[in-house]
Design goal:
With 238 residues, this protein is α+β, with helices and mostly antiparallel strands. 55% of the residues lie in helices and 17% in strands. The chain is globular, with a radius of gyration of 20 Å. Keywords: Membrane, Transmembrane, Transmembrane helix.
């Protein structure tokens, strides 16, 4: 069993490099840091953050957070389909249009779960893209999705704690009384690589224990391991 799992982990690694969402997120992280440094130069005439240092630090602790989330995800047998993963990313990108801090799987997962429930209550529409979207939403495993979101919330708390000593950006903002006051802005984006158990047409992972996986709609299907990029975000002014 150890050999099979080791081979599955190695085979899962290229998926992170080949996934376009990985590069989209790294680009967004870089643009966010560039914007932050640009604001600092305009306000203070100098930068308070080093671009390369901040980017690599965010990537490093993101990998750490992903590893800590992946262990219970795999041990518990949280099975998610690739369609669910794509839906999470699309929802997160949509939420980013409102605020950068909403570019986060924790928020996207909650909204996606609500949409899945609504799709289950509504009658299936006729043929077309709306029917296809409804079918995908109805196939989402809510227990597995909630388990992943809960673990990502814990990871987000850890990443915020690890980033507490990073320099914050001084800004001006309006207080509740309408006065201009000084504050510190904390904004972070993290790439969190996750090992996910997913339905696979090739071979099958050996079960870790008798009732594994615990969060699977069809545990009899062959399962594989894949490494996919998740995203977490945080923003605060104080």
């Amino acid at each position: 069993m150890t050999t099979e799992w080791g081979a599955a982990i190695i085979q899962a690694l290229p998926a992170l490099v080949l996934n376009p969402f990985t590069y989209i997120l790294v680009l967004l992280m870089a643009l966010h840091l560039r914007r932050q440094i640009s604001i600092e130069r305009k306000l203070f005439g100098t930068k308070l953050h080093a671009f390369g240092e901040e980017l690599f630090y965010a990537l490093g602790i993101g990998v750490l957070g992903g590893l800590l989330v992946s262990i219970p995800l795999v041990l518990l047998g949280v099975v998610l389909t690739y369609h669910t993963f794509v839906c999470l990313w699309l929802m997160a990108l949509l939420l980013m249009a409102f605020r950068v801090r909403y570019l986060c799987f924790a928020y996207a997962g909650s909204i996606l779960a609500l949409l899945s429930l609504i799709a289950g209550w509504l009658p299936a529409p006729g043929p077309g893209w709306l029917a296809a979207a409804g079918d995908i939403l109805r196939t989402i495993s809510l227990p597995a999705l909630f388990a992943m979101v809960a673990l990502l919330h814990l990871a987000e708390a850890l990443l915020i704690y690890l980033s507490r000593l990073r320099p914050a950006t001084p800004v001006f903002m309006r207080s509740k009384r309408g006065r201009m006051v000084g504050a510190y802005e904390l904004q972070h984006l993290w790439l969190v690589p996750l090992f996910l158990v997913t339905e696979s047409g090739q071979g099958s992972l050996p079960p870790l224990f008798a009732s594994w996986p615990l969060f699977a709609q069809q545990p009899e299907l062959p399962l594989g391991l894949v490494l996919l990029p998740a995203v977490l975000g945080y923003s605060s002014k104080r």
